[in-house]
Amino acid sequence: MKAAVGDRLVVEGTRHGETRRIGVIVGLVHEDGSPPYMVHWEHDEHETMVFPGPDAHVVTEERKDTPLTTS
């Protein structure tokens, strides 16, 4: 997984009742865009360092206007 500042990180809910979380990548640790990422979460306006798991994917800046469909 590679990302750039401004890309969105989408984490799908993996358990019943969990909702999708969407955040904007505001910082990179590695110049090559590999994790971890500093993410500003839309749902509660806080920032955290994230090591994305298999339930996460990146929506690039070029695709940011593409609606996120449910899985």
Automatic annotation (TrEMBL):
Q: Where is the DUF1918 domain?
A: 1-58
The lineage's top-level taxon is Bacteria
Report any Pfam family annotated for this entry. Answer: DUF1918
InterPro entries given in the database record: DUF1918
Its name, as the record gives it, is DUF1918 domain-containing protein
Give the source species: Streptosporangium saharense
